[in-house]
Amino acid sequence: MNSSNSTHPTAYPEEATLDERDGRYLRKAIVWSHAARRRGNRPFGSVIVSAAGEVLAEAGNSNNETGDCTAHAEVNALRALAGRNISREELAGATLYASGEPCVMCAGAIFWSNIGRVVFGIDAERLRVFRGERQDQRDAELSCRDVFRASPHPIECIGPALIDEASAAHDGAWKT
Ligand SMILES: [Zn+2]
Cα separation of 46 and 76, whole Å? Predict the structure, then answer.
């Protein structure tokens, strides 16, 4: 129990420090978030990397391009794994990098994929400042960690990280 935090209920989660490798791949996910925005979508990107350091899949959000409300970056990246014959064991050793904290749907999809590790950029609390109060832009207020905690297999979760870099793509992106 961290009593110092309880006196600051509005405090944002603390930024995690990443090693060189995690920083490199999270920055790659952030590049995808900018690409998604340039194509008229919400600015989110995701990269899936094997334990050996092979990029298995990478994608941006494509909600507006496809009209598919489930086309979040993480789900798009996970779907790109389909038919590739990647074993559940290999996925258990893989890391999914997400420029923003995975939503409830994406956290559920990560659970079903058997991926054992997640590193994300901007957290959901800080994202809400960019999203604003418009009802259709608000997220379900449940942390991906709540979903991962309910998983029978362990899912390590690191974030928020590189917050300033991950936030840049959101600046002015939620006005319309
Ligand atoms: Zn999502």
Answer: 8
